[in-house]
Amino acid sequence: MVELGQLLDLLNSESEASWSANLFALAQRQGFEQVLYGAVGSRHARLETAFLRSNYPATWRQRYDSEKLHYVDPTVAHCLGSALPIVWEPDTFKQPSQRELYEEACGYGIRSGITFPIHGPGGEFGVISFASDSLPNERFARAIIHFLPTLSLIRDYAFQSSLKFIRARRDAEHAPHLTKRELEVLSWVMVGKSSWEVSKITNCSEATINFHIANIRQKFNVNTRQQALVKAIALGILTPEDHHR
């Protein structure tokens, strides 16, 4: 079980270092030697920009990050589309690349565990994984059921208490200034309108709309309007609910 005071220590942590230490201690009290927490301010943000804290072996983390294995990891894919946790089982890692990922992780003592998705009210997305070197057998499955309510509670407190760190990272990324017209054009692009359609809606020429889109691409330092749109959403300049009706 977890005590309220331990959760409040997590909630009241002022630095990333103290927050991490409190999270790791909470996980270890539940019998999980290793834990990973990662979250971004928007599900449209690049996962490489996540607020990430773990006590996984540094060598494994470096390999995982440098090879961008979060795009291979089936637990991440699961969490993107589900609100339910996923218990690691041999069948979880179906593809050869996923099997290779799992077998290599086992060599670092990351053999069994459970991953919880995080879907915040502000569009935040993340995962928290509790891992151990135990075999993923029936005994481990029974233990997971016992710890499930406590781990869910830790997930909730971890997310709420991490928001200040997530937002600080998002705010640190430079958000270019868009003019009122550029913002309007990009809003219409967000709902799938072509340059010609936007020109009719805004009563501008198609060449003018393309000029605005070129400026937007330049400000975001990207090659396509869709890449600019993804960055605008990730930085909070636009949200999917902003579209014109």
Secondary structure class reads alpha+beta
Mean pLDDT: 90
As a percent range, the share of strand residues is 5-15%
- Please write the string of helix (H) and strand (E) elements: HHEEHHEHEEHHHHH
The first-level CATH class of the largest domain is given as Alpha Beta
| Structure summary, number of beta strands | 5
Q: State the low-pLDDT regions, or none.
A: none
Largest sheet: 5 strands, antiparallel
Structural domains: how many: 2
Which geometry do the CA atoms define?
elongated
Brief sketch in words of this structure:
The protein has 245 residues and is of the alpha+beta class. The protein has helices at residues 4-11, 16-29, 58-66, 74-80, 96-106, 138-172, 180-190, 195-202, 206-220, 225-234, and strands at residues 34-40, 51-54, 86-87, 112-119, 125-132.
